[in-house]
Design a protein that fits this description.
With 424 residues, the protein is mostly helical. The protein has 16 helices and no strands. It has one domain: Up-down Bundle (Growth Hormone, Chain: A). Helix 8 packs antiparallel against helix 12 and helix 8 packs parallel to helix 13.
């Protein structure tokens, strides 16, 4: 289950990711609460903040993949971690002094998104270079486990701190965690040897086009991008918009209750990620779209059971969140594994970056979820989003035969390159 952690550089990536994940989940708790506090519980403003957060992904996402392929990935990570630390200190200072305003939040989430968009392609494209190919799926699952452990610790802890000590303490802890992620990144020794030669804007534009053509023409990668579009648009809006609204407006469990909700999804997610690391499933192309269907059904049932009278109307929705978390982390770990294994080495950064365009659809889903919740109600809107997520995953499973046929033992990108070069 933990074989990948025997490799030194992966251990430091894992530790750095743990610190990053703690800050991320604390932020996921604190930021919506800050917006709701500033705007007097405005669902539409919350959705708009989510939308602004992902704008840099649309603008910079594909270019981040070119940067990850053409420059040293460790250096890219160090720069992004420094930016993350400085931004965390800035927002913390504003909240502590009581000077934070809504425009500060919009600017901060935009800059934070611009930083994060360069982090992920560089980090994930490093994995096949420091681990044997057979451990890539396990590595993705173990990296997801950091998200899930910190979803439990970071989300629950941030909710309790926000409720009893205030949001200023929560944002201060986020800054401390960002410093830990920077320290771990400095200890990574892996060196990426990018291609030498012309690194002009024109050449990089050509590299971007090359990555786009490959991602569109390769059936497996194209299939992952399509199913990711469904996942981020209709599934992940729960994390950004619906969960805070359910905690405050529907279930009426407050800030610490929101932390509990994310912690419960983390329990299911942690179990799923460790099982993937242990089993290392092969038929990834079959499992992947079905996890999206399972996630959508889980969200639908979660919202439906919230109509029940107490205590069932509180206990059952919270229990279902563990199932929701299991499907969430399964999709993230398996989709990254498929993308990395289906891409040739020189295109991994660009291929991983193109999924950021799907991630940007989380902004559209979050904004739509916020506005529709304000108009038609929180529970009906979440039920519709859940059904659309489930049906979208099922449609992909039925229609995309090439994706269904992908197994983890295949190395499509390398096989295609070997055919082109005449080697075997």
């Amino acid at each position: 289950m933990f074989e990948a952690l025997k490799y030194r550089d992966f251990r430091w990536i894992w530790i750095g990711q743990s610190a990053h994940a703690f800050a991320l989940w604390a932020q996921i708790i604190a930021l919506p609460l800050l917006v709701l506090e500033i705007t007097d519980n405005s669902a539409s403003q919350l959705g708009a903040v989510v939308a602004v957060r992902v704008v840099p992904t649309l603008l910079l996402g594909p270019w981040a993949g070119v940067v990850a392929d053409w420059f040293d990935r460790r250096s890219i990570l160090i720069v992004t971690k420094w930016n993350n630390l400085l931004l965390s200190i800035a927002i913390s200072a504003l909240v502590v002094t009581g000077e934070v305003q809504l425009w500060h939040v919009y600017l901060w989430v935009f800059l934070r998104g611009a930083t994060q968009v360069f982090d992920q392609p560089a980090r994930y494209s490093m994995i096949p270079d420091i681990l044997p190919e057979r451990l890539v799926t396990q590595a993705m699952a173990l990296l997801s486990s950091t998200q899930n452990i910190m979803r439990i610790a970071g989300a629950a802890g941030a909710g309790i701190i926000a409720e009893y000590l205030g949001l200023s303490w929560t944002f201060s802890i986020i800054a401390v965690s960002a410093a830990g992620g920077l320290f771990a990144t400095y200890l990574i020794q892996a060196v990426h040897h990018p291609p030498t030669g012309d690194h002009s804007l024109r050449a990089m534009t050509g590299g971007l086009i090359e990555g786009a053509r490959y991602s569109i023409s390769q059936p497996t990668i194209r299939g992952v991008l399509i199913v990711s579009l469904v996942y981020f648009t209709f599934g992940m809006s729960y994390m950004q918009v619906f969960a805070p609204l359910f905690a405050v407006e529907v279930l009426e469990i407050g800030r610490d209750g929101l932390g509990l909700m994310f912690a419960l999804t983390g329990v299911g997610a942690l179990f799923a990620s460790l099982m993937i690391a242990r089993i290392q499933p092969q038929r990834l192309g079959i499992i992947l779209p079905l996890t999206v269907t399972g996630l959508g059904l889980g969200l639908f049932v979660f919202s439906l059971t919230s109509y029940m009278p107490r205590p069932a109307g509180l206990v059952l929705p919270l229990a279902i969140l563990a199932v929701v978390g299991a499907f969430q982390t399964s999709f993230m770990a398996l989709s990254r594994s498929v993308m990395l294994q289906a891409a040739p080495k020189h295109l991994r950064g660009r291929v991983m970056a193109f999924i950021s365009l799907d991630r940007a659809m989380m902004a559209a889903g979050g904004a739509a979820g916020g506005f529709l919740s304000a108009t038609y109600g929180i529970q009906p809107t979440q039920m519709v989003f859940g059904l659309l997520c489930a049906l979208g995953g099922l449609a992909v499973f039925i229609s995309l035969r090439d994706l269904r046929g992908f197994t983890a033992t295949e190395s499509i990108g390398q096989r295609r390159v070997s055919k082109q070069t005449g080697t075997d």
